[in-house]
Specification:
Layout (H helix, E strand, L loop, with lengths): L3 H51 L6 H26 L9 H12 L10 H58 L1
């Protein structure tokens, strides 16, 4: 049989691993949101450029069609990046109020006493379970955010290529 001290050390190590993983998932979350903000800024600059370019009176119909594609790609990229910021299903593993409630329950004189340290193990196990559930939620949302950002980046590349094509086509038309 494993001594209770060893059980406590194992449980604390598992809880420390959950804490580290939670911190990492939180950093990923923050990084994705920062990238989304940059994507929104870039899309906004491109949108301003498209509108500025399209105000020019002598634009060929084909160029206008390409600018329409550019505009659609930019708006879609903008929406993808905004969704990344909107997705706020951020799950807190075990807030301090719930932890204190469980601690009070465990410290209550009417709570059954087992071996010394067993109540502590129960608290650590509940905290670990909270971390496990939260990490599943956060990881799923982070994956969706990452996919949305990748798609937004692809749309920005499409917009840049089509805007360049429109500018080149307009230059060729004007130089004839």
């Amino acid at each position: 049989m494993i001594p209770l001290d060893e059980d406590i050390k194992i449980a604390e190590r598992a809880l420390a691993a959950f804490t580290d993983e939670y911190k990492e998932a939180s950093e990923i979350w923050k990084t994705l949101e920062s990238k989304a903000q940059v994507t929104i800024t870039v899309a906004g600059v491109f949108l301003a450029a498209v509108f500025s370019f399209s105000r020019d009176g002598g634009i060929d119909l084909r160029v206008k069609m390409v600018l329409g594609l550019t505009l659609a790609a930019l708006l879609a990229a903008l929406l993808c990046a905004l969704w990344v910021l909107k997705a706020t299903t951020y799950d807190v593993p075990f807030d301090s109020e719930a932890t204190m409630k469980k601690a009070k329950e465990l410290l209550d004189p009417s709570y059954p006493r087992g071996e010394s340290g067993s109540r502590y193990l129960e608290l650590v196990a509940q905290l670990g379970s909270g971390f496990e559930d939260s990490l599943k939620t956060i990881d799923n949302v982070n994956v969706k955010k990452e996919r949305s950002l990748r798609f937004a980046y692809s749309l920005l590349v499409l917009a840049a290529v089509s805007a360049t094509g429109a500018a080149v086509a307009q230059l060729i038309i004007h130089t004839r």
